[in-house]
# Entry
Amino acid sequence: MPFCSIRNSPRRILRKLSPGVLLGIPLYFWIFSDNQRVPKVTIFGHISNNPPDVASYKDLALQNFPRKGCPMYLNATHILKESSVHRIRGEVVLLPCKQPLNTSDVQSRKLGFVSSFYPLELNFEEMIRVQLEGKKMINEPINPHDFTYIHTGENVCDKSSIYLIIVVKSAVGNFEDRRVIRKTWGDVGNYEGVRLVFLLGFDVTVERRVREEASKYNDIIQEDFIDHYSNNTLKTIMGINWVAKFCPNAQFSFYVDDDVFLIVDNLKKIRKSTLQKSGVMIGKVLSSSVPYRDNTSKWFVSWETYPFDKYPKYLAGFAYLMTVDVVKKFSMAIPYIKPIPIDDTYLGIVAEKLRITPRTHTGFVMSKPSPFSKGFPRLNFRNTIAFHRITSPTMMLQIWTEYCTHSKFCKHR
# Structure
């Protein structure tokens, strides 16, 4: 009799279980099984257990899935979260991540940059392709740029033909610098098919003046992050996202600091003679830069933030040109690429992840010309595109006067 009681105990247990529990058991295995089937969801590739691509990094790789942006597989959270997307888009995509880098001992290793080990470790070519096909990425962004526009420069880029949008990164308090730029090389009335905007962060102490400036000129792009040098990456991302969203019909985007003198006519010359209409990222290439590890430097980047000993090739941030397709790809990829506070270096990381090669041009000059009367003719206004490190609005006006003296450009206007 005791034997019979033991033998029949599972049946008794099942009879006592509620119908909800009985239905929940198979549902649990369906949701969390690697072999689950979710309608209209595509999972590209697979999470490989193979060693990393570079042999010297083999012992530094860890498997710590799942983590932010890199879920192991679709689970109940994804299904519930994306149910509305099924109806809107018809298909969503989850991309797998490669193995991450163990950053605990990279400082002693002094490793060169390898894009496949920089977070997120996704296939970015595949990512861009599926987004261009109109599919929805459901990997969680690690760099979402959660800021709100205060001014959007409404209707700067209308439906007319625009070949160039000039995006000037400016400190919020530099009102006189912006006024002089509008009066000199940035007077878009002198050019056909050119628009210009200024990128600003937020500072409550001058916000009233910024509102007046935006209302008067309608060329201010501003979000609600604090305007500070350490937030230059945020400002640069804002500029890329703005062009992708509000000025997608421009063929080229030129990003420039407000201490740069730009010769737009020379930019038009190289556009006609040497530039393609896609895949272009051009400026002054820096190919041997290393991170500053001194925490007193304004360019300081910690080992935890950037665990490599060298930076990838990138364009100096004072001035660079992109075709619109590159801008759109950057805007798609940036939410999934870990940011660093050095904006031009960060764009070099993004370019490396996207396999876009920055190109150099001798027309981008970093050191300021001096003295005025003799220096500028030697610098050759005919071929130079951008002078960097203009120290004041007064100097900008002097350069403009010098340029007009030696150029037919001003004489025809």
